[in-house]
Structure formats: C-alpha cells, structure tokens
Amino acid sequence: MNELRKEDWLLDLGTREYTEVWKLQKELVERRFHDEIPDVLILVEHPHVITWGRKRSVVSSFRVPHVSIPVHEVERGGEVTYHGPGQLVGYPIRKLEGEQRDLHRYLRDLEELIIQTLDDFGIAAQRRAGATGVWTMGPLPHKIASIGVAVRHWVTYHGFALNVCTDLRYFQMISPCGFDGSIMTSMDRELGKTVSLEDVKGRVRARYEESLRCSMSRLHWSVGVDLHPICR
C-alpha cells in the first residue's frame, strides 16, 4: 500500500527584493490559517539587505565601499543578519497542528533539514547548544546557516538562510546573531570549489519532502497575481 503523502507547494522566486517577499509571506500566513492554501516553501535569493529580529538593539547605517545596504526591523526571532547574492533563503509557511505546536521542535527540524542537505554535498555539520543555526564540525566551528522564525495563528514564516557562495565580507559589517562576522562560512569555502545554487535548491526540496512526507508542486507567481501550481 502506498503511503499517503500530503500535497504542499514550492515557490521558487529566483532573486527578489526582501520587502516584496516579506509582504508575500504575511499574505500567505493569513491564507494558510484559513486553509485556503496548503503549506508552502518559498526559496529565494535576496539582493543585499540587513534585517534585525526581535532581539534588536539600535539600528545603525551599514556601508561597504560603494554600497549602501537597506536595513529592516522584522518580527522573526534572533538578532541581526545579512542576506545577499549566493545565499539560499527558505521561508516555510507551515501550519503547526496538534503535537507539531512546539517551536523548539520546529527549530530543530529546520536545523536538521540543513544538516542533511549539507551532508548530501559532503559537508559535516552540527547544532550548537545555545546558538540556533547550523555549524560546521571541527575544533573551530563556523556558522554556515542562520535560522530565525516567526509564528502567527500557529502558522510559521521567516526561516533559514544557507550560505552557498555568499560573499562573506558582508558579514564583517555586523555581528551576525551576536557573533563576530568572521565566524561565518559558506559551502564554497568549506568545499574549496563552486557549488551550484540550483543544485542546493534541489537537495533542499528533496530533504524537505522526505522529512515532512509530502510532495511539492511548483508554483508560478508575480506581483498582483494569485498563486497557481504549474508542475511537479
């Protein structure tokens, strides 16, 4: 007998401005709460942006030569982080029901998703007590993925940011999640070679479907247009 698998949606947005996707997330949270849509996983790459979570202090101006980076205060957990080209950002819009209503468990599930994805590329990764996110193994662990979530009506939004081929110099502008910027690393840096963002997306999707026992349909979406599934 075939296992019954729930049907979720995958929304691959390519590269989109942070504020555009932030607004979309909040719209999807409301629709998911009212059961108008199934769970959705958004995958996206953002242009340079810095966000502050609920553990924020005074927001300053952040600059590197010839680049001015926008800063947004948002409702996710955690402190300050950077998003930019070469970083895969995932926003699961999931309705937590029954025994799933456990935010600690949900955070650990996101960490496990990233740990398993990295393992597919030969990168050994781990959790670190008291420091949500995913870290490399070894005597001097480096942070390779950041996690910060929000929940409304027990529907999740915000999510994870995995450094694939990110320019790590941008983290030197901030104290990512309270750490010195030098603590950050990327898949490219750990492997010593270029990693395809599209390949990483594929493995994230496979691991997500495996862990949640679901199948995902791809979506087409543009500003002002409703979501429409187009293919598997």
Automatic annotation (TrEMBL):
Gene3D superfamilies: Bira Bifunctional Protein, Domain 2 (3.30.930.10)
Localization annotation: Cytoplasm
EC annotation from Swiss-Prot or TrEMBL: 2.3.1.181
A Gene Ontology term for the protein's cellular component: cytoplasm
Residues at the active site: 177
Further remarks about this protein from its record: In the reaction, the free carboxyl group of octanoic acid is attached via an amide linkage to the epsilon-amino group of a specific lysine residue of lipoyl domains of lipoate-dependent enzymes.
Record's protein name: Octanoyltransferase
Annotated source species: Fraserbacteria sp. (strain RBG_16_55_9)
